[in-house]
Specification:
disordered C terminus, wnt signaling pathway, Hormone Receptor, Insulin-like Growth Factor Receptor 1, Chain A domain 2, signal, 2 helices, 243 residues, 17 strands, TSP-1 type 1 repeat, two-stranded antiparallel sheet, disulfide bond, TSP1_rpt
Length: 243
């Protein structure tokens, strides 16, 4: 023990010296040696720094260095993150991944190779040509499928997701867009027109009959009454002169 051991230390040290820093730590803290130039200073930390792993002992908790290729580790033989240029696999840092695995440059780990997966083909579409289903004899029909699993870097690439083949249909004329509706509108207008024509004719007939009736009534009012014609036989009857 250094002769300048002190009991009133700062920074989590249980015992310390002016030359070596912490010599022991308070409970639950980890003791680690930090190099400052050619000198090593003891410090007490709540957790071990990057590149170290903690080991607890009855008398002291210590931080020990990870292997040279580990950036962080759980124990000396089990890395949790590798330094640049190495890939993590089963707690080890490797320069090249084993067969059947591929290097993931994003996570810097060796991962399983993932191949592309697709869904089943959809049914064939109606036979079409230039977006229409009529007005032609030969056209094309298509079917599609979806990608359900994209491949990894070394995985099998995805196949085509659509197929097309020629088809033949019974040729038929295309009905003009809105023709059926137009025909219905024309029929309705024509029906309304016929009804209007009949109504006008009926109204015209009523008006004519009413006018004739009023004319007859007016004539009857203005025409003088005819005098009753004398009875000629009565006038020619013999006059009785006998008394």
């Amino acid at each position: 023990v250094h002769p300048n051991v002190s009991q009133g230390c700062q920074g989590g040290c249980a015992t310390c010296s002016d030359y070596n820093g912490c010599l022991s730590c308070k409970p639950r803290l980890f003791f680690v040696l930090e190099r400052i130039g050619m000198k090593q200073i003891g410090v007490c930390l709540s957790s071990c720094p990057s590149g170290y792993y903690g080991t607890r002992y009855p008398d002291i908790n210590k931080c020990a260095k990870c292997k040279a290729d580990c950036e962080t580790c759980f124990t000396r033989n089990f890395c949790t993150k590798c330094k640049s240029g190495f890939y993590l696999y089963s707690g080890k840092c490797l320069e090249k991944c084993p067969d059947g695995l591929e290097a993931n440059n994003h996570t810097m780990e060796c991962t399983s190779i993932v191949h592309c997966e697709t869904s089943e083909w959809s049914p064939w579409s109606p036979c079409m040509k230039k977006g229409k289903t009529c007005g032609f004899k030969r056209g094309n029909e298509v079917r599609v499928r979806e990608i359900v699993q994209h491949p990894s870097a070394r995985g099998n690439p995805c196949p085509a997701t659509s197929e097309s083949r020629k088809c033949i249909v019974q040729r038929k004329k295309c009905q003009k867009e809105g023709k059926g509706k137009k025909n219905r509108e024309e029929k309705r207008k024509k029906s309304n027109k016929d009804e209007s024509k009949e109504t006008r004719q009926e109204n015209k007939g009523r008006a004519a009959r009413r006018q004739n009736r009023e004319q007859r009534e007016n004539n009857n009012k203005t025409q003088p009454k005819k005098r009753k014609a004398p009875n000629k036989e009565q006038d020619l009857a013999p006059v009785d002169t006998a008394h």
